[in-house]
């Protein structure tokens, strides 16, 4: 299916989007997780810009710039600061064996492809092919949240889910209304800030960023009472 | 008849240029490391020296040890002669499609590993064990990335695949990009290059390929070394064929052939330079990170397949 | 047909097998007994081959034997499918019979072997040529029971008895499931004859029931993961010639049954899409699990047994692909997948038979199955080594031998398959091909290990040092399959033409035209521009280049200098410094630790000084997850229930009498209830015909009343 150049570019970016989702899932080191996350933000911005060019909508240009600033630069930078100050460099032993996670991820991708296909048939948009990938990315982000132990990686997983939703929005409806988008962007920003604050709080309270440690603490507390 | 002649010339070129390619990589690496290097022809000089030297064999070695170099060399050479370098449609390309090509290389590897085990030292067994382990992981990744191409070309025949790629209008194919990345990763691993193995290492505990041929000397060693050089050449040519075949000669006219030869050498030089750069920039992986590297290659190839179905195959 | 048809030859083969079984009645001397059995078996095999070939060439036929139950005579029939499997039986039985003449030389107690081996063969031939469910099941059970006695041939060891028991259990479970499948087909057709079953229409639900029962039944018998628990125990403990036949042929008979019931009786028209997926998944998981576990074995025959599981998996991948393609109306491609599976079936028969014969020779000559005690046998047993190497190369799917042809055909089926019904299925097919590639590459690693550890390097024990070469009978028995391996690797086009009757029978398409477009030299499954492979050309090329290199390089006249191997400068290497079987597979153990869950114990003994290590022991145990997680719980549950029952038994005589008393009472009650129910059913039926409906209620109640009083 050789569509226009715009469509080819969007398709290529969608493939890269999928790659970044897998890469996020496969990384062990915090800093490389962050790099891939920033890369994903960058990809999103480029996609938005290209779709904007393809459809000629000015609003999308603005959201592209916003995405670039927020998801490509600001959020990664914030998270990087948190990581540096909290001295967490490596994801400890992931919950599942990494190759098993990858296999599950492949299965999930295949499944979402299977599910989305009927929808794609209806859509007339230039970006419809990327729907399946966007769905897969959402699921992969959730998978990341499930399989990781550290709170920070879980937050990155959450943000990746948000990224994929944004991608889906561009793909399925040529972007949301600008007002909605700005609202979401601020929500995400504030969520990230709050997460950042929480990390410090959690760290000082539990001496660890591992979710299990918190659970253990909670149970322990219950026992005490 | 002329196509048979070209076929023979092409095969000979592959065999004869192989040491030069290896020499080219090491010269590039030397330059990148601010050394002068031994020169392009050094591998040739090494081979010539080895061919005239006396053979010394370990006392327990069996007939298998002495036949293995010939099997390894011939299997690799046959595999190389099947790969089109200049002319797309060569008579021998019917002999083996891509899968058979991979199997021929596997045959060479099988005997290489057996030869490693024959002498009964720890090194040989270690090399054989590691080689077979990593090859087992590399092979699916390699086939997967080939599948991506053969699915769109509906063929595993190299000639048809190349023709298909040349004739499709140039477009962005994310699946091909994935497949190519995976293929490059596998090629590095299969040829025992950094970051998987170090062809120049002399530290026994980290080596794979060298460990298996440790006991070889004289002409046997020369054949083994030459085979591994041919393999590097073969992989480079294969990657060119599969992913950037533009400019290859469809008809056996002198002009087309000349252009094809020039372009082939140019692309080859580019790929080998990239290899030299990668080898200089990267550090060798820990042994047990290699499986992760290879499964990464497999995942990328599979992503290529998925994105082929999702984005390109059409609904 | 007036002249002798394939069916007559096949019946003659069965008769020879029966004669062999009866030979102990006539012959007393052990030596003569052995010779007669081997001779008769060889004749049986030759007849089977003749019947198979003539059947494949088109001599079909059927007949009804005056045997069996009075109302149910035995129907036998040869079609292309049966003929192919007859050929397969004969192709391995012939060399195995010759091999047995040498192998059984030192066996003391021959009688069980002489009785049960021909019975086993008879069972297999009978299953293949049967044309009704009764005959099929009869011979199936003959095969299973006879093989049980052969597995427990060395019944003095408890381990063998246990393996035999598990085998018997699983074989009967399989038999029961297959019987269930036939029952479903019988219910649909009302006849036990295959022709009626073929013609009877099946509702999707019944078809699914029959499919599932048959798939699980034959899957159990073929050792498909996770139903394979019995196989790695049973195959190794049998004598070498029996292991060869069991792994080489008996597993294939299960494949035959699978094709017979699912492809032939249920028919390709009734396939549902998930059947193919199920078989494909079972095949992929068997292939991967089988080879991964094979890699970790240090018992040579156990390694081969696990590798059989892998190969059954490869066959099922081909069959599963074919089923999917048949479902989506791609008969030509489905035929390709089917032929690939059948090709692999006969390939596996040949090389696994050869491998087990080789392993038998090695075990015979060293007295152990433990690979850690072998090594360097290539010097002591050059013939065995060379023949074993041929089998190793073949099974590792390397050109120019036969294993590669069938795997290549399977790859082609997967790759050239057009779009299937849904995208998920379409993407699954290349994935299964990648799994096949992984299995193939792992198999190569596995057989480098097997050959390398057993035959290469230095001897690891005294037994290995004193090993001796096998006799001519055994050699001859191993040379035949080795040559066939090469032949099947070189002439795939002719073989596929020979097999062409089977896709014609099951799918009504012929492969001949597309396969031989370029003559016998070039194998082109669909079209030369899509894929082609020519083993003869590759082999010729290799011989020319290799010969030229050898002539050019090899100096004549002076011997090669030999020296000690490099040992990092330490004085000398010894046999304990080599890589062992478990060290060879250590990287795999680490990479796939999630699957293996290895239990490792490293024990280092240091005396006097912490730096002076005196003794290191390393023990590793690799789990077969299916056995641990599936069989063990079931076995434990059964044992628990048995214990409970046992407790009830520990009472005095009066309680036993009481049990008997209650049982009799219960049975009597049951009987009376049943009787009344039956009469109740009969009466209204009888009356409703003769009497007008209005009077019916009163009549029936009156009848019931008398019944109760009585």
Task: Characterise the protein shown here.
The complex is a heterotrimer of chains A (225), B (315) and C (710). Chain A has helices spanning 5-26, 30-55, 58-86, 98-122, 130-147, 151-173, 178-206, 211-224. By secondary structure, chain A is mostly helical. Chain A has one domain. In chain A, helix 2 runs antiparallel to helix 3, helix 3 packs parallel to helix 7 (178-206) and helix 5 (130-147) packs antiparallel against helix 6 (151-173). Chain B has 315 residues and is an all-alpha fold. In chain B, 71% of the residues lie in helices and 1% in strands. Chain B is built from eleven helices and one strand, in the order H-H-E-H-H-H-H-H-H-H-H-H. The relative contact order of chain B is 0.16. By secondary structure, chain C is mainly alpha-helical. Chain C has a domain at 1-203 and 220-260. In chain C, strand 1 and strand 2 (72-78) form a beta hairpin. Strand 1 of chain B pairs parallel with strand 3 (561-563) of chain C.
Indicate the radius of gyration of chain A in whole angstroms.
Answer: 18 Å
Shape of chain B: globular
Helical content of chain A, roughly?
Answer: over 70%
Chains forming the largest contact: B-C, 83 and 83 residues
What is the CA–CA distance across the termini of chain A?
Answer: 65 Å
Overall pLDDT metric of chain B:
89
Main beta-sheet strand count, sense and barrel state of chain A: none
How many separate domains make up the residues of chain A?
Answer: 1
* N-to-C span of chain B: 45 Å
Report the β-strand fraction of chain A as a percent range: under 5%
The largest sheet of chain B is: none
Strand content of chain B: under 5%
Order of helices and strands of chain A: HHHHHHHH
Q: In DSSP terms, counting alpha (H) and pi (I) runs of 4 or more, how many helices of chain B?
A: 11
Question: Helix segment count of chain A?
Answer: 8
Shape, per Cα inertia axes of chain A: globular
Question: How many domains make up the coordinates of chain B?
Answer: 1
Helix vs. strand class of chain A: mainly alpha
**Unreliable segments of 5+ consecutive residues of chain B:** none
């Amino acid at each position: 299916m050789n569509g226009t150049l715009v469509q080819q570019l969007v398709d290529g970016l969608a493939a890269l989007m999928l790659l970044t989702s897998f890469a996020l899932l496969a990384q062990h080191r915090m800093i490389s997780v962050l790099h891939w996350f920033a890369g994903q933000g960058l990809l999103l911005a480029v996609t938005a810009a290209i779709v904007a060019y393809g459809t000629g909508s000015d609003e999308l240009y603005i959201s592209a710039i916003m995405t670039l600033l927020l998801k490509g630069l600001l959020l990664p930078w914030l998270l990087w600061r948190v990581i540096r100050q909290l001295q967490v460099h490596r994801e400890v032993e992931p919950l599942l064996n990494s190759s098993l996670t990858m296999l599950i991820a492949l299965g999930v991708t295949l499944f979402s492809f299977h599910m989305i296909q009927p929808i794609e048939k209806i859509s007339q948009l230039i970006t419809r092919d990327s729907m399946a990938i966007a769905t897969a990315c959402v699921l992969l982000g959730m998978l990341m949240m499930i399989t990781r132990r550290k709170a920070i990686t879980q937050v990155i997983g959450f943000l990746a889910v948000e990224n994929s939703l944004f991608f889906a929005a561009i793909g399925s409806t040529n972007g949301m209304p600008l007002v909605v988008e700005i609202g979401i962007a601020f929500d995400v920003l504030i969520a990230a800030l709050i997460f950042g604050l929480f990390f410090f709080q959690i760290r000082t309270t539990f001496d660890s960023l591992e979710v299990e440690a918190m659970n253990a603490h909670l149970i322990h507390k219950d026992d005490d009472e | 008849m002329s196509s048979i002649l070209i076929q023979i010339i092409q095969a000979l070129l592959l065999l004869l240029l192989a040491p030069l390619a290896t020499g080219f990589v090491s010269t590039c690496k030397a330059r990148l490391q601010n050394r002068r290097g031994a020169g392009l022809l050094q591998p040739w000089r090494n081979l010539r020296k080895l061919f005239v030297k006396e053979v010394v064999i370990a006392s327990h070695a069996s007939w298998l040890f002495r036949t293995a170099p010939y099997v390894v060399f011939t299997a690799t050479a046959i595999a190389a002669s099947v790969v089109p370098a200049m002319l797309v449609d060569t008579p021998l390309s019917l002999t083996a499609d891509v899968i058979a090509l991979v199997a021929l290389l596997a045959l060479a590897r099988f005997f290489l590993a057996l030869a490693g085990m024959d002498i009964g030292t720890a090194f040989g067994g270690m090399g054989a064990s590691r080689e077979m382990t990593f090859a087992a992981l590399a092979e699916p990744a390699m086939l997967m990335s080939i599948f991506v191409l053969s699915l769109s070309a509906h063929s595993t025949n190299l000639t048809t695949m190349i023709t298909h790629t040349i004739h499709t209008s140039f477009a962005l194919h994310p699946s091909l990009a994935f497949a190519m990345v995976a293929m490059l990763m596998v090629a590095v691993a299969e040829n025992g290059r950094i970051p998987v193995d170090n062809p120049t290492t002399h530290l026994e505990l980290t080596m794979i390929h060298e460990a298996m041929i440790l006991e070889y000397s004289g002409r046997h060693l020369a054949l083994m070394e030459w085979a591994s050089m041919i393999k590097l050449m073969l992989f480079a040519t294969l990657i060119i064929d599969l992913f950037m075949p533009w400019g290859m000669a469809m008809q056996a006219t002198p002009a087309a052939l000349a252009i094809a030869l020039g372009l082939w050498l140019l692309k080859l030089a580019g790929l080998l330079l990239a290899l030299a750069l990668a080898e200089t920039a990267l550090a060798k992986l820990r042994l047990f990170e290699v499986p992760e590297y290879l499964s990464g290659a497999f995942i990328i190839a599979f992503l290529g397949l998925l994105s082929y179905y999702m984005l390109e195959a059409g609904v | 047909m007036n002249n002798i048809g394939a069916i007559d030859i096949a019946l003659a083969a069965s008769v020879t097998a029966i004669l062999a079984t009866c030979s102990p009645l006539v012959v007393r001397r052990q030596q003569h007994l052995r010779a007669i059995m081997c001779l008769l078996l060889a004749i049986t095999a030759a007849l089977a081959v003749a019947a198979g070939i003539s059947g494949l060439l088109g001599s079909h036929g059927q007949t009804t034997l005056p045997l069996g139950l009075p109302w149910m005579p035995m129907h036998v029939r040869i079609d292309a499918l049966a003929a192919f499997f007859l050929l397969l039986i004969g192709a391995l039985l012939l060399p195995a019979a010759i091999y047995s003449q040498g192998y059984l030389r030192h066996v003391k107690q021959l009688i069980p072997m002489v009785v049960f081996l021909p019975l086993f063969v008879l069972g297999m031939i009978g299953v293949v040529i049967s044309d009704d469910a009764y005959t099929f099941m009869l011979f199936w059970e003959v095969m299973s029971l006879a093989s049980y006695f052969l597995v427990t041939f060395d019944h003095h060891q408890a381990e063998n008895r246990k393996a035999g028991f598990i085998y018997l259990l699983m074989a009967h479970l399989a038999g029961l499931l297959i019987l269930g499948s036939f029952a479903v087909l019988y219910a649909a057709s009302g006849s036990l004859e295959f022709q009626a079953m073929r013609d009877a229409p099946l509702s999707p639900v019944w078809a699914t029931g029959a499919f599932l029962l048959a798939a699980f039944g034959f899957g159990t018998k073929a050792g498909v993961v996770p139903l394979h628990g019995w196989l790695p125990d049973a195959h190794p403990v049998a004598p070498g010639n029996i292991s060869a036949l069991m792994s080489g042929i008996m597993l294939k008979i299960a494949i035959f049954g699978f094709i017979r019931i699912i492809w032939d009786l249920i028919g390709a028209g009734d396939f549902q899409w998930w059947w193919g997926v199920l078989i494909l998944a079972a095949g992929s998981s068997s292939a991967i699990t089988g080879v991964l576990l094979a890699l970790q074995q240090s018992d040579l025959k156990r390694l081969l047994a696990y590798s059989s599981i892998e190969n059954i998996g490869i066959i099922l991948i081909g069959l599963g692909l074919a089923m999917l393609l048949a479902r989506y109306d791609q008969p030509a491609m489905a035929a390709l997948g089917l032929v690939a599976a059948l090709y692999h079936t006969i390939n596996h028969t040949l090389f696994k038979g050869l491998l087990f014969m080789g392993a038998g020779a090695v075990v015979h000559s060293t007295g152990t199955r433990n690979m850690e005690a072998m090594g360097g046998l290539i010097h002591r047993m050059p013939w065995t080594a060379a023949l074993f190497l041929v089998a190793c190369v073949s099974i590792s799917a390397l050109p120019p031998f036969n294993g590669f042809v069938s795997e290549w055909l399977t790859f082609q089926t997967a790759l050239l398959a057009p779009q299937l019904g849904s995208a998920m299925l379409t993407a699954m097919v290349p994935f299964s091909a990648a799994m096949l590639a992984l299995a193939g590459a792992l198999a190569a690693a596995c057989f480098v290990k097997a050959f390398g550890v057993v035959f290469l390097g230095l001897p690891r024990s005294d037994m290995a040092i004193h090993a001796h070469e096998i006799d001519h009978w055994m050699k001859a028995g191993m040379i035949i399959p080795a040559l066939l391996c090469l032949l099947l690797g070189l002439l795939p086009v002719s073989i596929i033409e020979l097999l062409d009757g089977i896709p014609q029978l099951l799918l009504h398409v012929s492969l001949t035209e597309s396969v031989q477009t370029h003559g016998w030299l070039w194998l082109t499954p669909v079209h030369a521009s899509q894929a082609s492979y020519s083993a003869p050309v590759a082999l010729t090329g290799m011989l020319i280049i290799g010969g030229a290199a050898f002539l050019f390089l090899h100096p004549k006249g002076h011997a090669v200098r030999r020296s000690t191997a490099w040992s990092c400068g330490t004085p000398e290497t010894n046999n304990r410094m080599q890589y062992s079987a478990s060290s060879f597979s250590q990287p795999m153990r680490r990479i796939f630790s999630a699957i293996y869950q290895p239990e490792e114990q490293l024990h280092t003994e240091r005396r006097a000084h912490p730096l002076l290590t005196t003794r290191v022991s390393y023990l590793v145990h690799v789990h077969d997850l299916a056995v641990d997680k599936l069989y063990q719980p079931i076995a434990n549950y059964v044992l628990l229930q048995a214990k409970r029952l046992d407790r009830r038994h520990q009472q005095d005589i009066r309680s036993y009498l009481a049990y008997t008393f209650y049982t009799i009472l219960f049975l009597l009650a049951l009987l009376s209830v049943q009787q009344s129910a039956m009469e109740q059913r009969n009466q209204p039926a009888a009356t409703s015909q003769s009497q007008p409906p209005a009077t019916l209620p009163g009549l029936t109640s009156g009848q019931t009343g008398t019944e109760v009083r009585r």
